[in-house]
Amino acid sequence: MATNVSVDVHHVTRVEGHGNIVVDVVDGQLERCEFAIVETPRFFEAMLRGRPYQEASHITSRICGICAVGHATTSLRATENALGISPSQQTVLLRKLNFFGEILDSHVLHVYMLVAPDFLGVGSVIPLARTAPEVVLRALRMKKLAGDLCKAVCGRHTHPVAMTVGGFTHFPTEAELRDLRARFVNMRADVDSLVELYQGLTMPDFERDTEFIALSKADEYAFIDGTIASTDGGLWPIEDYKSVTNETIVPHSSAKHTSNAGQSYMVGALARFNINHDRLHPRAKKAAEALKLKPKRTNPFFNTVAQVVEICHAVEESIILIDKLLERGITPEEPIEPTSLSGEGVGACEVPRGILFHRYEIEDGIITGADCVIPTGQNLANIENDMRAFVPTLLDQTEEEITLSLEMLVRAYDPCISCSTHLVDVNFK
Amino acid sequence: METPVAVKPKIAFFDFTSCEGCQLTVVDSLADHIELLSVVEIVQFREAMSERGEDYQIAFIEGSCTRPSDEPRLKAIREQADIVVALGACAHLGGINSIRNRQPLQDVRAYVYGEEAELFETYPARPISAVIDVDVSIPGCPINPREFVQTVKMLLQGRQPEPPDYPLCIECKSLENVCVYLRGKTCLGPITRAGCDAICPAYGDGCEGCRGIISNPNYEAMKAVLDWHGLDMAEVEAKTTMFLTYQTMNMDEKKENGHGH
Asked: A126 and B28: CB-CB below 8 Å?
C-alpha cells in the first residue's frame, strides 16, 4: 500500500490539448490534487474585437479542430440572435445534419482511438491496427462517413467553409444526400458492433454524485439551441448563462473554472443523457439499455458509454434528417440578411464535449465584445473533485496503476484543452 | 536536407499554439493512406498515442510560437530533427493567432484574464520560422490532406517539396468555379498561393489567404480586379488581417523603409 504517492503526468496523451495531472499523497493523506491546464492562452475573445461580424464563425472555428463545426454553429447563432436573423427551415435542417457529422466524428475518435486502447492494454490505436484490424477499420469507416457528411454540407469538417450568418453559401446535391443515406443505413451494423465492443468493457467502479448541466428542448434531444437545464433542478434561458457558469480564474489553469449550484458540475454526453434520455431515438435507448446506462448515472467513466449511445442516436437522426431534406428538395437560398447591424446575442450548442456558449456585442457590423465559455473549462473543477474522491480509493495500487487510472478518468471527460482553451499530464509530486 | 532519409524513418508530431486541426487532418489522411504507416515509424504524436520517442528524423510542427517557453522546445526539436516541417498556417505564417498582434498585448491579456493576466505567460504570436530554420512548409488552415500525403512521399524519396507559387485563381479557374467576385464577395485568390483545390471559392466563399501570399504577387492586377467590381484595396487589406497579420505588419515596417510593394 502506497502511503507516499507522487504522480506528475506532464502532458496527458490521447487528449486534444495540453494538461498535467499533479497528485501529492503524504502519509496516506491527499495533500495536493490538481488538473493543470498548461495550454497557451489563446485570446480569441480579444481577437474578435474590431472584426466584422461575418468573420466571427470563421475565426472561432479555429478555437478547436475537433469542434470546429460546433464553434461555427454556436458563433452563427450568437450573431444571428444579436442581429435579428431567423434562419430558414432548410438552414436549420442542414445545420442539424452537419452537427451530427461532427458529433459522430468526435465521438468515434474518442471511443475508438483515444479510450479503447486503455481497456485493450495498448498505448495507441496503431498497435491495435495489427491485433484487431477489424475494430480499427470499422472506426475509420465511421469517421470517414462523418467527414464526408460535413464535406457535402459545408466543404470540410475542419474548418467549415460554407456556413455563414443567415444560412449557407453552398448546398449538397440530392445525389450526395442519397449516397450518404445509403451509407448511414449500412453503418447500423457498425454501430451494433461498437455497442457489443463496449458491452465487453468494464468501466472502473467509481461513483460521485454531482450536478449535470445540458441544453434541453421539449421535443428533441438538444444539440443546437434550447434552455439550460440542471439535474439539481432549474431552467435558465441561454442569455442567463453567466449565472450558471460563474467563471473564476485559478492559477494552475489557463482555462477558467466554473460552478453552479454545487462546487462543480459536469457537462458532456453523460450530462445530456442524464437530462434528455427520454428524447433519444428508440435504437439509441436500446443501446443504452444494453450498456447498462440508466439515468441518473453518476460514474464519470460512463461519459464514454453515453457517447456510444449518442453515436447510435446521431446515425438514426441523420437518416431521418436526410429523408426530410430529400422530401422538401434542396433549394439554393441566399443567406438571410440582418434586420439590424447592432445588438447583443448569445448562442448555445451541445458540442461533443458539452454545452458551449458564445456571446457577442456588435456595433454597426463590428464586434465590440465577445465571450466564449467552453465545455472542457466547465468540466475542470469537476475533474479535480473526482480526482480528490478517486485517489483515496486507489492507494493500494502502484504509482503506475494510479497514474493510468487518473489518466483514464481525465480521458473519460474527452477533454479538449486547445480551447484555453487545452488538457492533461499526471504529476505525482 | 542533405542527409538522405533513412529506411523507415522515424517521424514525430509536435504542437504549439493551435487548434490541433492539422494533426486531425493528418489522422484522417493516414486513414486514407494506411500504406504510409508501413514505411515510417511514428515515435511521437501526443494527440493520438501514449508512447514517446525522442529519436526522430522528421519533425512536423503544428502551431505558432506565442510564449518564451516555446523557444527552447522548438530549438530542441530543431537540434534533433534532420527535417523540420511547418504543419499548417499557424506554424507557417503565425495565422489566426497573430490577429492579436494588432492590439497592445496588455489590452489583450486584460480583456480575457482581467487582473489575473500576469498568471499566464504570452507574447506576440509568430511563425516557427521566426525561431528556428524550417525546411518545408505545408500551408493552409487546415492543411490539405492530399498535399500532406504528397509532401511525406517526397520527403521519403529525399526530394524537396515545394508548394505551388502561383495564384489560387489559376487553380480555381481550372476547376470551373464561378468567380466569387461575381457573387459580390471579396477574394484573395489573385495573390494567394494555390494548392488547396480552391476549396473556399468552390464552396461559395472568398479566399482568406490562409496559404500565404505568393512570392511575386501582382498587386496591379489585384487592383484591376477590385476596380472592375467597384471595390478598393482596403477590402483586400482588411481580409489579409485574418491569417497574414504577422506578414502584413512586417510589410508595413518595410514600406516605411521604402522597400514595400
From this structure: no
